[in-house]
Amino acid sequence: MKKIFTLIFCVLALLCGSCKKFLDQKPYSLIAPENFFKSANDAELAITGVYDVMNAPSIQGYGNQALWGRGMHYLTNLGVDDLTQDVRYTTAIPDLMPFYDYTYTADNPNLWYAYFSLYAGINRANFVIERVPTIDMNATRRAQIVGEAQYMRGMFYCYLAWLWGGVPVTTSTNPEITTPRLPVQQVLQQAEADFKAAYNVLPARSTIIGRVNKYTAAGFLAKLYLYEASCKQNNVSQSLNFALNSFDWVNASEAYTQALNWAKDVYDNSGYKLIRPFNYLFLAATEAAARDENMMIVQAGTGGSQEIILFSYLAGPRGSYRTNSGTYGWLRPHRETYLRYNANDGRISTMSGYLNTTTNFTTINGFKYYTPEPISTSTIGTLCVNKWREDDPNAKLARGIDTFSGETDFAILRFADIILMYAEAKFQTGDEAGARALLREIRLRACGDDVAKTTTVTTAYFKTDFMTELLDERGRELLAEGWRRFDLIRTGRIRTVLNGLSTANMFPGHDINLIKANFQDYKIWYPIPSRDIATNTNLVQNPGY
């Protein structure tokens, strides 16, 4: 892979970006795009460059792991009851704090880095979609490469729409700098078209590890339709009277039916499954097994794209990345997050105390994982996320992985999410009994396939309002995986959930009242970055900023 990346250094720069690592490499030659897309190898290198955007250290020198290497975790997990910040350790990071307390502005660099990087990915995908069809190569593989690029473009547009609403849309390799924002309807319709095109040409599984397939596209179609339907059903953004971000155009009943059909397709036909045990989804030692459930991953480390995830900056047990592969402890679960779990639910182990030991460990498939402290109800301020784990730092160094970084695959889409979406779509189309049966599948795995414990947990979690129960279940299953903020926004519950947060501080300086006071309805959308507003005079800002 290192040789591949060296060869395509300059091509990727021309495709709107290259990683910091590329900038440290000496290129062998300068290759213009018109001279590059000539062979099957060129096509493979170009599509690799599209995937690389997801956890590139920087693109054209901008950003610091702007997307799933770090930044996307902040944009999608903070500011709700999923994760908060331990402000004792983040005051030196002023660009991160605003996502916790709703004080972000259009000048926040993390917002611009993410916005810029998503468009860099779209531009790279546009080059593949436009140029690869002209290459003389195996026709089936050529169509698949274009389909992969269409999927990636659709996913990038989805995230732009979910984070900002209506944005400029371009499918050209020569976009106009003055392109205006289009309504969220047209952004999501572009994503829908891309996913369907990808579904029609991609195989059920790729022979290349980490690549998307037709069922990844089907899963994101289910997610897209659920988003549209629930936004319409719950009058999301309506009070803002801002046409670009309106969902008045959605037929909610039709969209729920579409979500049901696409989720059913994945559930019935994809061959993905819930792996056992639950924690094996989040370890480098078991990532091969996890791919039976993980439908869309961001690869990291020596087995991936030679990129990493800034694990020490993310949600993990507070410890020392140099000695026991702990994190800085910046992203921490709310008290409400912890209390959402019943004691019989094995997923409660996704939280722990601090990681202090360098002697107490568990070995899994030859990987040594140090054991965090148990949760103490008398010291709940030490509560940490214990989901993703990295093994012994010295072993990582021996494999060429820096101690501050992570090599565990991060799943953007899991089969468990499909089951939960299928349950939601069943409920919204009149089958509550079928929806509840699907929740039981998730809980059975969570309880180690113990039927008695599953019954106990199901009783404990029961809510007369099924959607409340479903969102709680999504919160337990998908903790810190980037969906809680979107779920609360699309179902119109974000203000209610924030108002219900306990004012008892978990950490010194942690002020829940500040979050409640700062949140306003317009903050379900992030501001369009001021750099883009200044560059493109046809852009209009989201209301309130």
Please characterize this protein's 3D structure.
This protein is 45% helix and 5% strand. The radius of gyration is 22 Å and the shape is globular. The chain has helices at 2-7, 9-14, 20-23, 33-36, 40-52, 71-77, 97-101, 109-131, 139-164, 184-201, 214-233, 252-269, 287-290, 335-339, 393-398, 415-428, 432-446, 451-461, 466-477, 484-490, 494-499, 512-518, 530-535; strands spanning 83-85, 294-298, 331-333, 351-352, 361-364, 367-370, 384-385, 410-414. With 545 residues, it is mainly α. Strands 1-3 form a two-stranded antiparallel ribbon. A two-stranded antiparallel sheet has the order 2-8. Mean pLDDT is 90; it is low at 1-30. Helix 10 packs antiparallel against helix 11 (214-233), helix 12 packs across helix 16 and helix 16 (415-428) runs antiparallel to helix 19.
Percent strand: 5-15%
Helix content: 40-55%
From the helix content, strand content and strand pairing, which structural class follows?
mainly alpha
Rounded mean pLDDT score: 90
Main beta sheet: 2 strands, antiparallel
| Total of DSSP H or I helical runs spanning 4+ residues | 23
How many distinct beta strands? 8
In order across it, which strands form the biggest sheet? 1-3
Question: What general form does the structure show?
Answer: globular
Q: Which spans have pLDDT < 50 for at least 5 consecutive residues?
A: 1-30
Span between termini: 43 Å
Instruction: Work out the radius of gyration.
Output: 22 Å
